[in-house]
């Protein structure tokens, strides 16, 4: 599969040549909405803790073609929306930009966009910078001098530095939009030079964090191996540069229609899992220290209208729940593109969250006045009202795909619930159930962003348990607890898993600090969607849990309960996967061979290791996601119902001799989201050892 690069998105030089619109287009009334008859069930589980919101969570991109990059008006708008990280110098421009001369040969550099102006804006916003060192046309020495200027000469304390931007787009895999002057454009060469960059930059300031560019699982060129690289881009970069980097940098443009982009936020948990699996497998010792940043994302349709706001809030929440330390929208200002109408609103095809104030080439359509906020800006403002630094995300879910829920528990004991109605035509009533939290009997604070609104509306109304969500809307409820939280124990520390087998795991965790009474016990819960299943309890800080399913992913939390019955906040989550039996009467080797980005060839070797021969066999497995399938197969009879795959023998291979008789079969696999491989296989009902 190939990707068509959105060069114009990254390389638009907008500000010096665009004129302010003389008048904004007239507003279009939103379409009349129907209402669903049955309420959507929303479940919020305060016992099922996810990641804590970092102080770098809400980010956006700044670019050197934006002459208003350092303006007070722009900075004030970003500060008001809660921006806490700003990226510079702007996408693919980073690989042609030379900071000392403030030039970008082949591109446009606006006045008043130099590094010092950017840093003044960062400080005005109250944010931290993330800086992209020039890999494509720069050198490690140039990057090291930038660190010296920033942190030694000027004392800016710039902590976060990425080596390059989308460097897999340098032609190595066929598509070329990213500048790269190196004769060797391989992933191997990029990784080797990342090591040189990291060494040179940290020699100047050992306290900085250096990141390397990875690709999003199931997005091009994920899965592709080119040239003499030992594997795909992520594997190659992590294997060689992993010990030297502190974080990885990922971009995500899900593409498709507005509805398709909004549905693809469901890929986030599996994508995050795969990224962490890749880091753990390839990045060497202490790989757990490596963080994940998402520094560019946007939708392919409805960038300035409600799909952009909905996607931003849903994607930022989903990624931050998974422990990503920053999410950054592309872009602050970008420029007018293809104009269309989306759900009754004019969309200017502008990847900026603030208007550039420009017009189409023929002058027929103009954007609203410069710096007018578009819908994604209001979506970011909603995120700032919903999830604040220090809050802990907790599980929330619904029984309606077009209604999404997120929740965060605050240090003062209150709870914020974000409800997204992705249906452009229908209002959905919701009934909200709470576990581990009892809301006060009062009207909650309600923040609402309706389709076409000029900002977030705030008031107090209704109840904590029932509400009707307008079409294409974002709603945040802020709820106070029914009782005081004083005296509860502190949360246990993040658990770890040891001695993991196919059926058991030993979980350990740092103890919780007692509150108003001694701690009586710890309770261990598994997250099942938005429902918690208790796996056990103990008076100690370690528990061996059993009766687990082979080849299965588990996310668990630990809670402390004191002798007065008060329960702590949940620990940070732990996600681990069980394996296969160490000994079985069968074995399976699943090999993913040639991969082209949305499909692959696979070979499955089946071995009868038992004492009795098989005269006819059936192999089964379950795909971990709903977007994986067997397209076709050979050397067996293949079928799939839902996520269940069934493979049966043919006349040629039905007999598997005892003590090692084997056969090999194959199939063409397809996937439209992160391709998480199956973890357990059963031969004639017996769980096999996976080799």
TrEMBL record:
Write the signal peptide boundaries: 1-26
Which keywords describe this protein according to UniProt?
Carbohydrate metabolism, Glycosidase, Hydrolase, Polysaccharide degradation, Signal
Q: Which InterPro entries match?
A: CBD2 (IPR001919), CBM2/CBM3_carb-bd_dom_sf (IPR008965), CBM2_carb-bd_dom_sf (IPR012291), FN3_dom (IPR003961), FN3_sf (IPR036116), GH (IPR017853), Glyco_hydro_b (IPR013780), Ig-like_fold (IPR013783)
- Ranges for domain Fibronectin type-III come to 491-581
Q: Domain CBM2: where?
A: 579-691
A Pfam match is CBM_2
Name this polypeptide is given: Cellulose binding domain-containing protein
């Amino acid at each position: 599969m190939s990707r068509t690069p959105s060069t114009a998105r990254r390389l638009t030089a907008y500000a010096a040549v665009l004129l302010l619109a003389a008048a904004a287009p007239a507003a279009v009334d939103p379409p009349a909405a129907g209402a669903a008859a049955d309420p959507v069930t929303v479940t919020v589980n305060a016992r099922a803790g996810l990641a804590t919101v970092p102080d770098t969570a809400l980010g956006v991109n700044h670019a050197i073609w934006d002459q208003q990059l350092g303006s007070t008006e722009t900075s004030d708008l970003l500060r008001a929306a809660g921006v806490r990280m700003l990226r510079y110098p702007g996408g693919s421009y980073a690989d042609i930009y030379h900071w000392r001369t403030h030039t970008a040969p082949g591109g446009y550099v606006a006045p008043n966009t130099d590094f010092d102006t950017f840093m003044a804006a960062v400080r005005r916003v109250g944010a931290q910078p993330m800086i992209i060192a020039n890999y494509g046309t720069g050198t490690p020495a140039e990057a090291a001098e930038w660190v010296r200027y920033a942190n030694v000469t000027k004392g800016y304390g710039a902590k976060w530095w990425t080596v390059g931007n989308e460097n897999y787009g340098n032609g190595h895999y066929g598509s070329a939009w990213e500048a790269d002057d190196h004769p060797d454009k391989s992933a191997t060469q990029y990784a080797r030079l990342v090591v040189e960059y990291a060494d040179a930059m940290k020699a100047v300031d050992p306290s900085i964090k250096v990141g390397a560019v990875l690709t999003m699982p199931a997005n091009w060129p994920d899965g592709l191996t080119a040239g003499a690289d030992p594997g795909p881009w992520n594997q190659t970069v992590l294997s060689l540069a992993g010990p030297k980097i502190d974080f990885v940098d990922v971009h995500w443009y899900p593409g498709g229609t507005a509805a398709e982009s909004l549905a693809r936020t469901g890929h986030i948990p599996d994508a995050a899992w795969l990224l962490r699996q890749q880091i753990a497998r390839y990045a060497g010792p202490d790989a757990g220290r490596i963080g994940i940043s998402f520094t560019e994302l946007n939708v392919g349709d409805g960038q300035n209208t409600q799909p952009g706001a909905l996607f931003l809030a849903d994607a930022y929440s989903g990624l931050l729940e998974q422990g990503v330390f920053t999410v950054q929208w592309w872009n602050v200002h970008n420029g007018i593109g293809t104009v269309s109408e989306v759900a009754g609103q004019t969309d200017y095809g502008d990847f900026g969250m603030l208007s550039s104030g420009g017009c189409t080439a023929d002058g027929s359509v103009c954007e609203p006045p410069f710096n007018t906020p578009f819908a994604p800006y209001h979506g970011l403002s909603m995120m700032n009202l919903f999830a604040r630094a220090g809050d802990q995300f907790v599980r929330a879910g619904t029984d309606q795909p077009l209604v999404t829920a997120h929740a965060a528990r605050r240090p003062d004991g209150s709870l914020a619930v974000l409800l997204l109605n992705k249906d452009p035509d229908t209002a959905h009533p919701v009934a909200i159930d709470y576990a581990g939290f009892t809301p006060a009997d009062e009207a909650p604070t309600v923040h609402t962003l309706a389709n076409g609104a000029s900002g977030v509306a705030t008031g107090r109304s209704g109840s904590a348990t029932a509400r009707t969500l307008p079409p294409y809307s974002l709603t945040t409820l802020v709820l106070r607890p029914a009782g005081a939280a004083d005296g509860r124990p502190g949360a246990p520390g993040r658990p770890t898993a040891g001695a993991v087998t196919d059926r058991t795991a030993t979980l350990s965790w740092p103890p919780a600090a007692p509150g108003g009474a001694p701690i009586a016990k710890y309770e261990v819960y598994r997250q099942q969607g938005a429902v918690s299943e208790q796996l056990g309890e103990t008076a100690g800080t370690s528990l061996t849990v059993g009766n687990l399913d082979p080849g299965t992913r588990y996310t668990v939390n630990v809670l402390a309960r004191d002798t007065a019955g008060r329960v702590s906040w949940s620990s940070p989550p732990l996600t681990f996967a069980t394996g296969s039996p160490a000994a079985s009467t069968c074995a399976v080797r699943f090999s993913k061979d040639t991969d082209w980005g949305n499909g692959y060839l696979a070979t499955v070797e089946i071995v009868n290791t038992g004492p009795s021969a098989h005269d006819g066999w059936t192999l089964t497995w379950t795909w971990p996601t709903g977007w994986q399938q067997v397209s076709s197969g050979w050397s067996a009879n293949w079928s799939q119902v839902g996520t269940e795959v069934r493979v049966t023998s043919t006349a040629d291979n039905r007999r598997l001799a005892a003590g090692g008789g084997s056969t090999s079969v194959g199939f063409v696999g397809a996937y439209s989201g992160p391709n998480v491989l199956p973890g357990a296989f059963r031969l004639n009902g017996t769980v096999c050892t996976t080799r």
